């Protein structure tokens, strides 16, 4: 019988951590078992094979990085601008908790794996759809709403590829200002 230490969630979390640290090649059953301090037999207690595990791992990433965020934002009444500020705050916290490593690893993996690319496309569409619902309440111009969505999402993903500094300012201060400009 599986113990709490080798629960499905523990395996999936270990897989996501490995993905964020070393990409898809780092998601190896033996390595995950070692990191959890168990034998790989525990893996097969929960998962038929690695492809099944990878699918469930991506489900967990999507649940955390998309659905849980949207559910939290929708769990209380707030003005659209306030929801967007909260969304930006949650995204910043997610990044700070190491979530961006997993996000970037999935994006890199999607360049080489059509199945992962399809999953990522669905995540991006879901996020953009939610952003649209909020930005369309901020502006009456559909093109302006779409542009704000694209800029906000690109800022969230793309800032991690920019190595330039911001003389006299922190990246956080510049990001905050950029996002506030989108809310005007």
Structural commentary:
The chain is mostly helical and 184 residues long. It has a single domain, classed as Tetracycline Repressor, domain 2, CATH 1.10.357.10. The chain has nine helices and no strands. It has helices at residues 8-22, 29-36, 41-46, 50-74, 80-96, 99-110, 114-135, 142-158, 171-182. Helix 1 (8-22) packs across helix 6 (99-110) and helix 4 (50-74) packs antiparallel against helix 5. The chain is elongated. The termini are far apart. The mean pLDDT is 93.
Named at the architecture level, the CATH assignment is Orthogonal Bundle
Terminal residue distance: 56 Å
| CATH topology label | Tetracycline Repressor, domain 2
Low-pLDDT stretches: none
Structural class: mainly alpha
Give the integer mean of the pLDDT values. Answer: 93
Number of domains: 1
Instruction: Tell me the major beta sheet.
Output: none
Fraction of residues in β-strands:
under 5%
CATH class: Mainly Alpha
Task: Set out the fold topology.
Layout (H helix, E strand, L loop, with lengths): L7 H15 L6 H8 L4 H6 L3 H25 L5 H17 L2 H12 L3 H22 L6 H17 L12 H12 L2
């Amino acid at each position: 019988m599986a113990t709490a230490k080798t629960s499905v969630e523990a395996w999936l979390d270990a897989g996501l951590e490995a993905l964020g640290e070393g990409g898809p090649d780092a998601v190896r059953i033996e390595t995950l078992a070692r990191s959890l301090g168990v034998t790989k037999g525990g893996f097969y207690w929960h998962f038929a094979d690695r492809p099944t595990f990878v699918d469930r791992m991506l489900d967990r990433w999507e649940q955390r990085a998309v659905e849980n965020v949207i559910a939290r934002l929708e769990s209380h009444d707030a003005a659209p601008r306030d929801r967007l500020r909260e969304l930006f705050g949650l995204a910043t916290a997610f990044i700070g908790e190491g979530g961006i490593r997993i996000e970037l690893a999935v994006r890199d993996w999607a360049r080489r794996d059509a199945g992962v690319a399809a999953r990522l496309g669905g995540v991006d569409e879901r996020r953009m759809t939610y952003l649209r619902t909020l930005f369309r309440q901020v502006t009456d111009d559909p093109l302006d709403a779409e542009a704000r969505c694209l800029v906000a999402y690109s800022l969230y993903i793309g800032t991690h590829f920019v190595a330039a500094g911001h003389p006299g300012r922190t990246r956080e201060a510049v990001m905050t200002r950029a996002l506030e400009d989108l809310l005007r």
